[in-house]
Write a structure and sequence with these properties.
This is ABC transporter ATP-binding protein. The chain has about 270 residues and is an alpha/beta fold. The protein has two domains: about 5-85 and about 175-255, 3-Layer(aba) Sandwich (Rossmann fold); about 95-175, no CATH class. The chain has helices at about 50-55, 75-85, 100-105, 115-120, 125-145, 160-170, 190-205, 215-220, 240-245, 245-255, 260-265, and strands at about 10-20, 20-30, 35-40, 65-70, 70, 85, 175-180, 210, 225-230, 235-240. It has a six-stranded mixed beta sheet, sandwiched between helices. A four-stranded antiparallel beta sheet has the order 2-1-4-5, with helices on one face. Helix 3 crosses helix 5 (about 125-145) and helix 3 runs parallel beside helix 6 (about 160-170). The longest helix is centred in the middle third of the chain and has 21 residues, at about 125-145.
């Protein structure tokens, strides 16, 4: 298990995101160390996905900086991917009418070096790059357990396997940091356990992970540290015990302060 005593892989400082008069994320700091799995939780509307969007270039933060491997990230999604950060989405965004293999090959795009002319003439360089991409894509499908369905259309996969495919496509860009936005949403308990095992396997490949999730058991089984967002602000960060016992967290999820029930008891 890694620590953040050395220079963090991801260093987020004072990130704020405003939309007109609404502050969706307010002055959030967060670090992710090499090989860490960090959780991000909070009630609906807490700003978790907005925060992810600030990290991946979909939004340009109103204030603050996002640094990856010591470099401030450019506010363009494709440049963030090239830098080494990949993500999945809360709502699955696969190419439904493409095959499973083709979806992963799309994820390889940021790591290929062949230009348009080479692709048009399909010269030796292009053919070598294409063969290499296919081999790496198949290795990733094997890794997530979908190799046997490489030629199936993505839309025909069961929901849990679509989630796995989206992760495989993200991994195809060879990230150092993977952001997962509610990877177990809609999954049954068996699928959730498989997703947990997959996340650990990804970490074992040397990839750090930042994950948003509503399933508390999943988060606390998985994560080295967990940060809690409430109304766009980070209210606490720490290990399972620290987060679970924090009265502000309990208040945020239950909607009432802890003191209220005790005041009416004898």
């Amino acid at each position: 298990m890694s620590t953040t005593t050395s220079t963090p892989l991801l260093d987020v400082r004072g990130v704020t995101m405003r939309f007109g008069g609404l502050t969706a994320v307010s002055n959030v700091d967060l670090t992710v160390g090499q090989g860490e799995i960090i959780g991000l939780i909070g009630p609906n509307g807490a700003g978790k996905t907005t925060f992810f969007n600030c990290l991946t270039g979909l939004y340009v933060p109103t204030e603050g900086t996002v640094t990856y491997r010591g470099n401030v990230l450019p506010p363009k999604p494709h440049l963030v991917t090239q830098a080494g950060i990949a993500r999945t989405f809360q709502n699955i965004r696969l190419f439904a009418n493409m095959t499973v293999l083709e979806n992963v090959l799309v994820g390889r795009h940021s790591r290929t070096r062949e230009g348009l002319f080479s692709a048009l003439v399909r010269g030796p360089g292009y053919r070598r790059a294409e063969a290499d991409s296919r081999a790496k894509a198949m290795e990733l499908l094997e890794f997530v357990g979908l190799a046997a369905k490489a030629e199936h259309l993505a839309r025909n996969l069961p929901y849990g396997e679509q989630r796995k495919l989206e992760i495989a496509r993200a991994l195809a860009s060879e990230p150092g940091l993977l952001l997962l936005d509610e990877p177990t949403a809609g999954m049954n308990p068996q699928e959730t356990r498989a997703a947990e095992e997959l996340v650990f396997a990804i970490r074992d490949r040397g990839i750090a992970i930042l994950v948003i999730e509503h399933d508390m058991k999943f988060i606390f089984n998985l994560c080295d540290r967990t940060a809690v967002l409430v109304q766009g602000q980070k209210i606490v960060e720490g290990d399972r015990e620290t987060v679970q016992n924090d009265e502000r967290v309990i208040t945020a999820y239950l909607g009432t302060p802890l003191e209220q029930p005790t005041e009416t008891t004898e």
